[in-house]
Amino acid sequence: MGMFRKKHLLGDILLSDGIVSDEQVKDALSKQRITRARLGEVLVMLGYAGRRDVEMALEKQKIARARIEERVKYLCGRLIDEIGKADEVGEAFADIQKVVAALRDRISKISGK
Q1: What are phi and psi of 19, to 5 degrees?
Q2: Where are the domains of the chain?
Q3: CA 19: distance to chain centroid?
């Protein structure tokens, strides 16, 4: 998940859009630890990014997260469907085991064993 999530971090979005440099993101992150402000606010305060740039990046982040959420919901639905199929197979197998047990019982009665 780390690699998947990294593409959707604010600093990485601004970096990939060419708004900030890697050094600027690192500097802002170190200042963020001290100020406890949001990264976007720190980047704007330092003059590394404009407020509009941060807003656009946050919108991209929101869209990316919504896509991820939709994908997760879809995959969970698929998993639930597959589990349901596995349950059906398990029930059918249990029925087969009952039939086999009944046949063994009859055979043993017929053969006297």
Answers
A1: -80, -40
A2: 2-82
A3: 27
